[in-house]
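Table S2 (text version). Query chain:
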Amino acid sequence: MSLPDQVVAALTSASASARPVCAYVYDTGVAQARVAAVRAALPPGATLYYAMKANGHPALVEAYAETADGLEVASGGELQLALSASARRLAFGGPAKTPAELAAALDAARTTELTMHVESALELRRLAALGPLPPSARVALRVNRAVAGPAGSHAMTGTPTPFGIDETQLASVAALAASLGVPVCGFHLHAVSNSLDAGAYAQFTADAVAWSRRTAAELSIELRYVNVGGGFGISYDDPERGFDLTALDWSALDLPDGVELAFEPGRFLAAPAGWYAAEVLDLKQTHGRWFAVLRGGTHHFRLPAAWGYSHPFTVVRVDDWPHPWERPEVSGVEVDAVGELCTPRDVLARGVRIDRLRVGDLLVFGQTGAYGWDISHHEFLRHPHPDVIVL
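Corresponding structure-token output:
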């Protein structure tokens, strides 16, 4: 996989100034271009949020705040970061909002448009106890529907999960909202993570809108908002299997006038905007297997170990070798790329055949802008954190 010239240049400069190299590279231009591509593929007039959980680096958050319609947050910390980025709109999700977070969100709604995705009857009571909603705040009920969404890495609905209100309990929660004087504008129906089937996703969206229309009528809710969540997927080990925006067919979608349709992808927007680079510290063979030991690993980029796959990488050659001893290298062999942690599970790639690799070269892992640093166990063994280079 080829690397953009600006990424290679940034890493070459990093290797010239400090060794060993370990860094994330984020390109805000790629991030904003991705937003434009997704927006063009959505139904006309759809709202596009960026789900900050994918990557909360301030530079990327600011880039998405500028180009997306809003930011989706799932904690008080993300809320504050979104406000610092001057987000135009906010959607607040997550199953464990504290009273303090709810209060902070309502306070933010005095200056920023806010949609609160309420996950339970108790959360609704906590919200109502804070007083009337500001004019720029509204409430949607997150529902765990009886049916599942399209196939993906994680199912959120149609199965027991802590997310949303069981569809069988929805009528009672809607009645509670009415009794508490909390107006409900619609539904949040996030159903899947990392779906690779764009055609099935479009069908899911059409079904979600149809269900929302029927259910709102049954519950006497004036439907003004349907959020189908995120879930646009990335195929890390086979780019040909990725989510194809051109396969999003909206012909079955029947969206009434005055109803906002919202999407909130994270991974699909952020993954292509990031690269993780780690210098080869050692090359060693044990029991007939070659290992490239890196300054880095799963404490910086946990996804390959968590999902059990081999993440592709590109070798960036670093010719400088300042030591008096011979430089170790291998050629024409299969190599496992492993990290610096004291566990055999610290593996980023397995059995990758390489033409040539030397100690001091860099391995660069693409598509790491989402769920890379943000979900990793940073403090295990207390190694230094990677540098962050923003382009």
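Notes on Table S2: The chain is about 25% helix and 25% strand. Residues 88-265 form a domain with the TIM Barrel fold (CATH 3.20.20.10).
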